[in-house]
Write a structure and sequence with these properties.
about 160 residues; 4 helices; alpha+beta; 2,3-Dihydroxybiphenyl 1,2-Dioxygenase, domain 1; single chain
Length: about 160
């Protein structure tokens, strides 16, 4: 839970730095593992907390009960409905990621800026064409907010759950 709260606060901090406001979350949160035994442990935890058969891309699993992070200062209360546990990857040392949602027109503008190598207030913008998302990163923050123009519910049909 401490890792989840850390990722939440760090990603919201980058959102505020770039956009001057906190963007809404898409609904998912990823925790990145750094060791095989950590991955095995967190996968077991994820299996207890999530629906086995309701996942997006065999990656983001629907939580039985959403994770609600209470408001902190001006960071609003936030609800996460999907959880992802990433395998260890020595090239990616971050703690985790969340997806934040931006209006489609603003998303396209930001996408163009990222393709042109623009940096905003010390935050690197990197477009991921494979995901049609923009990653925000800063050297002093080891969490990664991804910017999208879709909420997780648009990717996953949960009406039968």
């Amino acid at each position: 839970m401490k890792a989840i709260e850390y990722v939440h606060i760090a990603c919201f901090e980058l959102s505020k730095r770039v956009f001057g406001k906190y963007l809404p979350v898409s609904g998912n949160l990823g925790v990145f593992c750094h060791f095989d035994n950590e991955f095995a442990f967190l996968t077991r935890v994820r299996e207890e907390l999530t629906e086995k058969d309701v996942n997006w891309n065999q990656k983001y699993y629907l939580l039985h009960q959403p994770i609600v992070i209470s408001s902190r200062g001006d960071i609003p209360e936030t609800t996460y409905t999907f959880l992802y546990v990433r395998r260890p990857d020595e090239d990616k040392p971050q703690v985790g990621d969340i997806d934040l949602v931006l209006d489609s027109n603003e998303f396209e503008t930001l996408k163009t800026q990222s393709l042109n190598g623009k940096e905003v207030n010390g935050v690197e913008l990197f477009y991921r064409p494979d995901l049609n998302m923009i990653r925000l990163s800063a050297s002093n923050i080891d969490a990664l907010p991804y910017i999208t123009n879709k909420f997780m519910e648009e990717n996953v049909n949960t009406s039968n759950v």
